[in-house]
Known about the structure:
Layout: E1 3-4, E2 13-14, E3 20-23, E4 28-31, E5 34-37, E6 43-44, H1 47-51, E7 57-60, E8 156-158, E9 163-166, E10 169-172, E11 178-179, H2 182-186, E12 192-194, E13 204-205, E14 208-211, E15 215-220, E16 224-230, E17 240-243, E18 247-253, E19 258-265, E20 276-279, E21 283-289
Parallel strand pairs: 14-19
Antiparallel strand pairs: 1-2, 3-7, 4-5, 5-6, 8-12, 9-10, 10-11, 13-14, 15-16, 16-21, 17-18, 18-19, 20-21
Amino acid sequence: MATKCVHKGCGKVFTDPDEPCVYHPGPPVFHEGQKGWNCCKPRVLTFEEFMDIPPCTTGKHSTVDDTPAPAKKSEPAAEVQPPIVAPAPARPPVAAAAPQSAHSPAIPPPSPAPSPAPEEPESDDPEIAIPDNATCRRKGCGATYNKDVSREEEKCVHHPGVPVFHEGSKGWSCCKRRVLEFDAFLKIEGCTEKKKHLFVGKGKAAGEEKVETVRNDFYQTATSVNVSLYLKKIDKENAKVEFTATGITLDLPTTDNKRYKDSFDFFAPIDPEQSKSRVLGTKLELTLVKSDGTSWPVLRKDDRWTGERIQIGSAGRA
């Protein structure tokens, strides 16, 4: 009988209990914005990168979660009452300072929230064969394909939003439930239902799937704009990024037969010779060197400006 492995990082459906299982034996670690696993060294900043950290241990599949619980913090020592100190004499009143604006002109208010994750297609392409044991691509579903079950009998309960980690709580942007433990976060039931699962998607031509949009965010300094375009498994050898004085042209194939192509103008001119790009595991990073020092309220020239300006300084950690 086919059973799903509960080891972290595996999740495969198996029938042979002696089949090799590659997984993370340790619990997840979230510390000061960094994310990783207690059993291995990689540390990343985004949830997408965390989910892509390769498993570090080979063993056997299991239906019992034997991941050790994270170490609990030691109890604080008993508080010591501070000595009583006589109050200092009251100081004479000081004239009120001149009122200041809510935001310093040198440091504009924080940027708007990153753009939401692009929506998945509504259904699979009927002309594309679904591989055995394929997993539903919608977040929070985790169902595996069973060729013996009619597609009309499927029910996909998932999360259409993005993960939200804030001050220790964990949840999804599409629903209200928040939990403290990562295991509990993975078990939060989906809040949206569709009639069928999404195993392979659609839009493929000649074996390649076209990606329409990607999520992005950016921050800036006085001299540069630093952009993250989130796309997993970019083929570093074949990716093309071409800067001009006013915009950019992108052709980003991935190693799992997808491709994202786009061309757009920036809000303000850049120095194309000094600007750089870097391919990472889950995104493309752009460093755009400003040619005139203008503060950018938006990334694209045709983006709607909400009235807020993007943050100047170092990027905050997730």
